[in-house]
Amino acid sequence: FLLRTKSILILFVFMLSSLSCFLFRPGLPAAAATAAIMFWKFDLNNTSHIDQLLDREGVTLRELMEEEDVLQECKAQNRKLLLFLSKDHCMQELVTLITEEPPADLEEKTRFKFPNIACELLTSDVALINDKLGGDESLLEKLYHFLEQEPPLNPLLASFFSKTIGNLIARKTDQVISFLRKKHNFISLVLNHIDASAMMDLLLRLISCVEPALLRMEVLNWLNEERLIQRLTELMHTGRDEERQSNASQTLCDIIRLSRDQANQLSEVTEPDPLLTVLESQENVSELLKNMFEGERTEASVVNGTQVLLTLLESRRSGLEGLMDLYSQGFERSYTVNSSILRAIEPHLKDFQQLLLNPPTRSAILTTVGVLEQPLGSARLHVARLVASLLQTCDLSICQEICRLNTMDLLLDLFFKYTWNNFLHLQVELCVASILNHSAHSDHQNPGLQNHEERPATGTGSQVNEGTPGQNSTSDPLFQHCRLVQRILDAWEENDKIQAEGGRRRGNMGHLTRIANTVVQNLEKGLAHSQINDLIKELPEDCRGRWEGFVGETLRETNRRNTVDLVRKVSTHNLHSSSEDDDMESPFPNDLSIQQAFSDYQIQQMTANFVDQFGFNDEEFSEHDENINAAFDRIAEINFNIDADDHSANAAAFEACCKERIQQFDDCEEEEDIWDEKEINYATQIKSRSRYNPGWTASFSETEVSSSSAWGGSPQQEGEGPQDTNWASFTEFQPFSR
C-alpha cells in the first residue's frame, strides 16, 4: 500500500512539472520542485522491504515475518506475498507455529511472537489463504492433531487454534464441518480440554457461526447426536475440577441464550432447536441438580449449577433492552418458562433451603466495616437469586413449596443479619415484591399471602403442609409468620437509635425503604390491596398504630428527602463542586436512593415520588395530597406566557449595563481601550437572600399572580417599585451555595 502510494505521488510530481512547462507558466515548475523536495525531505521513499525480500532467492518465511508491515501487506492483498504464503511449505510452517510449543530456551517476550503473527496471517480473512487452509486436508489434519495432546493445553496456543478453526467454520463452512463430522472423537477431545476457555469459544462458534439455517440445523442435530448437552451436564458434578465446572456452566448458559436469540431471529425455521430442547427437559435439569447435590456439596458446584438454572429461568433479555422490558411490563414475563424446568427444580427446593441453613464453610474476611466471621458466601447469594426468579414465574406449586419451607423467613433473617450486602438485599426485595404483586395472575389465592387448602398433584413427591390439610387459614406467612411489618418497624427504630448515638446509617436502609414503599403501594392500590388491608388489621393494635405513624410521617419524610435532597445535591455538585452540605444529612449512604431516582429519570417514567417533588421543597407547594404516592397533576396548571417583544425595566437596565461596558466603535480620531476597567453602576439595588427563600418569582406575563401560586411566590403589590413583566427577575438570584 505504501509502495503504491509513493509511486502515485512521484508520478503526480512529474506530471505537474511537465504540465507547467507545457503551459509556460513559471510558477508551476516551482511548485512541482517544492513538492519533489518535500517528498525526499520527509523520506517518503522508504518503501516496504517485503517486495525486495520476495524478489530475492532463498527468502524464508521467518524473514518475512520479521517485517513489521507483513500483516498490513497481507491484508492489503499484496499478490506476491499471498502467493508466497500459500505455498505448501509456508502453510505447513504457519500451522506448526500455532499448534506446537515453541522452544523453552527462547526469551519469554519473544517466545510466542511468531506463533502470534502466524495466527494473524491465517485469520487475516484473505480468500487465497482461506481456500488453501480449508481445502487442504493435510493442513486440517495437522490442526486437528492439536486436540489429541494430553491436557492441559497451552492456553495461548489453544486460543490460536480456536481462532483459526473458528475463522474456517465461518468462511469455509462446508469443508470444515464435513471434516469434523468424520472425526468421531471430536466432541470428546474438545470436552477433554474444556478447562481451556478457548475450547468453550470453539463450541459456541459451531453453534452460532454456521450459515445457512438449514446447514446450521444439521450441525445442531449432529451435536445433539453426540450428546453435547448431557456431557456438559456431567461435568457439573461436585467431584469435577472447578475450572471444568465453571467453563461447562458458562458454555451451557451461552448455548441457552444463543439458542433462544436465534430462535427469535430466524422465524423461517420451524424445527425446534434440539440442544435447547434437551437443556429445558425435566430429565436434564434433574440430572444437573443431582450432580450439584450428590456427594460433598461444594460452593463451586452450587454456584455453577445455579447459574445454569437462573439462565433457564430468564424471562427477558439482559442489558438495557431487558431493563426497558422490566419497566414497561412490570412483573409480567416476556418469556414463558418451560414447566418441565420448574417441575424438576421443585423437589430440590429443600436442598436449597438446607444451603441457606448450612452453607459451605468459609473463613472470616476483613471488610471496610470490620471482620465478618461468617460471610454470606456466593452459594447462599445464588440461592437467594434462584428463589427470586422462581417467585417471578408465578407458578402456584413452586410458590406453595417455598411458602411451606418458610424460605422467605430465612431470607429475611439474612437480610437483617448482613446489613452491608446490597446484592442480597436486592434479591430479598424482589422476592417480597413478587409475592405482593402477583396475587391476580391466577384464580387461586396468592401462595405468599395465604395458606392453601390443598396442594395440587405434581408428580414430584412434594409433601403438603402437615397439620393444615382441608383448612383455609387466613394467616399470611409474609405478614404473620415472617412478621414483615414488625421487622421493618424494629429495624427502622434501631437504625435511628444508632444514628442518634453518632453511628453509621445501616447499608440495607435503602432497600428497606423500597420494601416499605412496595407494601404501602399494594396496600393502597395493588392487586391484592383488600387482602393486605385485612392482614394489616389483624396485626396487634400497638403494631398497627406504629405502622400507621411510620407510613404517615417517617416514610413520607424519607421519600421526600430521598427525592428533593438528591436533586439538590446533584445540582450543587454541578454548579459548585467545591461546596459541601455539611449540615444536611445524606439520605443515601450505601443505599439505592440515587439508583431509584436515576432509573426513574433514565426510563422517563413520571413517577409520583420523582415528579411530585423534583427540585422543590415540600413547603413550596400550597397543596398536599394525603396519599404519599399521589400522581402529580398540577404540572398542567403552570402557565408559561413569554412576550419577547416587551421592553421591561430589567431589559433597559441590562442594556444600559452593556453600553457602559462596551462602547460603540466610531470613526473618531481619539482611540480608547474598550477593556479598561470602569466603575459600573447598577440601577437596581441587590439585596441578599437565603438559598431556600421561596419568595423569588419569575414573572412571565402581565396576568396577576395569585397568592396561592404553586411556586410559592407572593404577588408584587402596587406601588412597591417598578412593575416588571414578561422577564425573569434575576437581580435577587444567588448561586446555590452555602
UniProtKB/TrEMBL annotation:
SUPFAM superfamilies: ARM repeat (SSF48371). Residues 442-477, 703-738 are annotated as: Disordered. GO terms for molecular function: protein phosphatase binding; protein phosphatase regulator activity. InterPro entries: ARM-type_fold, SAPS. One of its GO terms (cellular component) is nucleus. Residues 703-723 have a biased composition (Low complexity). Residues 459-477, 724-738 have a biased composition (Polar residues). Belongs to the SAPS family. This is Protein phosphatase 6, regulatory subunit 2a.
